[in-house]
């Protein structure tokens, strides 16, 4: 039995929901409200995910964290519908996209989303003192320190612009790659496409025009249309906030 601890609009959770849908796997939903209820900081959840973040997968009592590791675990464990290239070099390229999704895209979109999404959302729900208390409950020292610094000093226009440029680098790499292959790795849809897709939707939702101007990057635009047309993408995005 598969249970996914996830949040409806989290990019990392969406990666896993797309993978589950591509593979036609049944799963049970355990919604973790990371915004208003802060379920992710509850001690029982932190026992499962010591970083206090979503997603977390429970497969018959085996706990797996980190979205990239979860999607590879699912693909390895349920190989009937494969989302990995056969060729080992192509597999390495696929893993490089997974790494890019986490180390370049997730990291920089977090920076860009801070003023756009995070600050207005938190200020609406909590006073500054409450926000400090919440951050002190974060289990990871690194994240706690980064977020406390951001709360004190904000994210500057320069930091935001730099992060957006790094996201532009990834979009350029996609455009170049997709000039000679149908999908991010070769001619089959793979975990590489799944790992990147939710962030493109986030760029659009954030109104980051320079990144999603498909006249400028037509190959990436065509790829994006094909990703969104897949039933797996639609199923993953149909999951709405159960508390709304
Ligand atoms: N590297 C982790 C990142 C997980 C992560 O940052 N999740 C976000 C949502 S996309 C989260 O739970 N944030 C809650 C918080 O920061 O309080 C993964 O890929 O699973």
Report on this structure.
With about 240 residues, the protein is α+β, with helices and mostly antiparallel strands. The protein folds into 2 domains: about 1-75, Glutaredoxin, CATH 3.40.30; about 90-230, Glutathione S-transferase Yfyf (Class Pi), Chain A, domain 2 (Up-down Bundle). It has helices at about 10-20, 45-50, 65-75, 90-125, 130-135, 140-155, 155-180, 190-205, 220-230, 230-240, and strands at about 1-5, 30, 55-60, 60-65. α1 (about 10-20) crosses α8 (about 190-205). It is globular and about 50 Å long. The model has no long low-confidence stretch (mean pLDDT about 95). The structure holds glutathione. Glutathione binds near residues 12 and 40.
List the helices and strands and how they pair.
Elements: E1 2-6, H1 11-22, E2 28-31, H2 43-48, E3 56-59, E4 62-65, H3 67-77, H4 88-125, H5 128-136, H6 141-153, H7 157-178, H8 191-205, H9 218-228, H10 231-238
Helix pairs in contact: 1-3, 1-8, 1-10, 4-7, 4-8, 5-6, 7-9
In a nutshell, what does this entry contain?
The mean pLDDT is 97.
Q: How many independent structural domains?
A: 2
Strand content: 5-15%
On the 0 to 100 scale, the average pLDDT is 97
Helix content: 55-70%
* Strand runs, count: 4
Residue windows where pLDDT falls under 50 for at least 5 positions = none
Number of helical segments? 10
What about the largest sheet? Answer: 4 strands, mixed
Please identify the structural class as seen in this structure.
alpha+beta
Radius of gyration: 18 Å
* Name of the CATH architecture of the largest domain: Up-down Bundle
